[in-house]
Amino acid sequence: MENIKHYTNGEVTIVWKPDLCQHAAFCGKELPAVFKPKERPWIDANGAPTEKIIEQVKRCPSGALSYFLN
Ligand code: SF4
Asked: Which residues contact 32 (CB under 8 A, 6 or more apart)?
């Protein structure tokens, strides 16, 4: 079964596929209020406005991040 994790702020849900993640923390450098590689859970969906989150999710180079609107 594919490994998939969900993180939501009630408006948008971030979908993360750890098997595809390159762990380069690209997202963590660009939007550290949401993507915190050193913390657990490492994604805080309440750390930035929904639009910012969506923008950043689209920039993930590996396809590990996607999203859907709730
Ligand atoms: S940008 Fe994508 S591939 Fe890179 S660390 Fe974040 S989730 Fe993983």
From this structure: none
Please count the structural domains in the chain. 1
Residue 20, domain extent: 5-69
Please write the tens of the pLDDT for every residue from 7-44: 999 999 999 999 999 989 999 999 999 999 999 999 99
Specify the residue for token string 């396809």: 63
What's the CATH number where 28 sits? 3.30.70.20
Residue of the CA atom closest to atom 8 of ligand 1: 21
CB within 6 Å of ligand 1 — which residues?
A: 21-27, 35, 60, 62, 64-65
